[in-house]
Design a protein that fits this description.
The protein has 13 helices and 12 strands. By secondary structure, it is an alpha/beta fold. The chain starts with a strand and ends in a 7-residue tail after the last helix. InterPro entries: Aminoacid_DH-like_N_sf, NAD(P)-bd_dom_sf, Shikimate_DH-bd_N, Shikimate_DH_fam.
Length: 337
């Protein structure tokens, strides 16, 4: 029985989600057709109503993440924290599903979602995306004493704060233009059991060597002035480079950087970061790892909706490291193993 899934947003033509998902379902042998749907905000509710029959899930991008969270009939603890969903799932079988960050340190808010027979369950896999990308960049396990830097204060910044909690950071440094607008991120960090400090954008270059990792969530080219400051600090000897000239995060004076923007790539800040000896990954890596978790959820939903035994067995025996590698290659990323 064929099922459907799609990515929704506006604009949507640039999305890499179809390449990622289609590669995974072809590798797994799952009869899931994955498309894309350009939707205006006022069209979301009608489209969701039409998805009740035959759909296993939706990947949700801007401008629909907050509206999708509100429209869902049930939500993960993570979505309740973030107020945004990048994933909607129909009929997921695990009523107690808890992904990374659903049990949050410091607040006990790890309640499972309640399944609904008709409406979708809302989740947010951006956390897996950020965690996976930073680990691929060479981030070592944290002990609770380290600080993670987050640049920007939008929706991706909220996911980055939660990802830092999952990684066991003890503190968040928020590099923002407006301290007032960063107040919700400070509250989120504290709810996740971390300390938080608000700093100016122009403090990043000097502070970076003391951070365990940095996630830049600014729009494309918005971080270009930071790149100039970083390059200047490196020239002046204020940012130590890797002793052996490599870009490994554990060898450099700079920690791993995830720049959530990926067009153009390399971005100015990514280039300056690498020149100073730091490891860098783009937002495509984040997209990869959040999509892997979506594929897991959609595959489980397809099985729960009455798949034949052979399909169920394929899902249960899936090698997810292999699936991740297939998906990475589909969008031109380096092999995973």
């Amino acid at each position: 029985m064929h099922r459907h899934a799609a990515v929704i947003g506006r604009p949507i033509d640039h999305s890499l989600s179809p390449q990622l998902h289609r590669a995974a379902y072809a590798h797994l042998g799952l009869p899931i057709d994955y498309g894309r749907q350009d939707l205006a905000p006022e069209e979301l509710d009608g489209f969701l109503a039409a998805c009740r029959d035959g759909y296993v899930g939706l990947s949700v991008t801007m401008p629909h993440k907050q509206a999708a969270a509100a429209a869902a009939t049930s939500r993960s603890a993570r979505v309740r924290l973030l107020g945004a969903a990048n994933t909607l799932v129909w009929g997921h079988p695990d009523h107690g599903h808890q992904g990374l960050g659903d049990t949050v340190r410091g607040n006990g808010n790890g309640a499972a979602h309640q399944a609904d027979e008709v409406g979708p369950w809302a989740h947010n896999t951006d956390v897996e995306g950020i965690v996976g990308a930073l680990r691929f960049a060479g981030l070592r396990p944290l002990t609770g004493a380290e600080t993670v830097g987050v640049v920007g204060n939008g929706g991706t910044a909220s996911a980055a704060v939660l990802a830092a909690s999952v990684l066991k950071a003890g503190r968040i440094d928020l590099f923002v233009r407006s301290a007032e607008r960063a107040a919700p991120l400070v509250a989120l960090a504290r709810e996740c059991g971390m300390q938080a400090q608000v700093r100016g954008l122009d403090e990043l270059a000097a502070a970076a060597p003391g951070l365990a990792a940095v996630v830049c969530t600014l729009p494309p080219r918005a971080a270009d002035p930071l790149a100039e400051q970083l390059a200047s600090a490196h020239r002046d000897g204020h940012v130590p480079a890797a002793a052996d000239g490599t870009v490994r995060g554990d060898a450099a004076g700079l920690p791993p950087l995830l720049d959530a923007a990926y067009d153009p790539w390399p971005s100015a800040i990514a280039g300056a970061w690498q020149d100073a000896g730091g490891a860098v990954v783009s937002g495509v890596e984040m997209l990869l790892y959040q999509a892997v978790e979506q594929v897991r959820l959609f595959a489980a939903a397809a099985v729960a909706q009455g798949a034949e035994p052979a399909l169920r067995e394929r899902v249960e025996r899936a090698d997810w490291a292999e699936v991740t590698d297939v998906m990475a290659r589909a969008v031109g990323l380096p092999p995973r193993h």
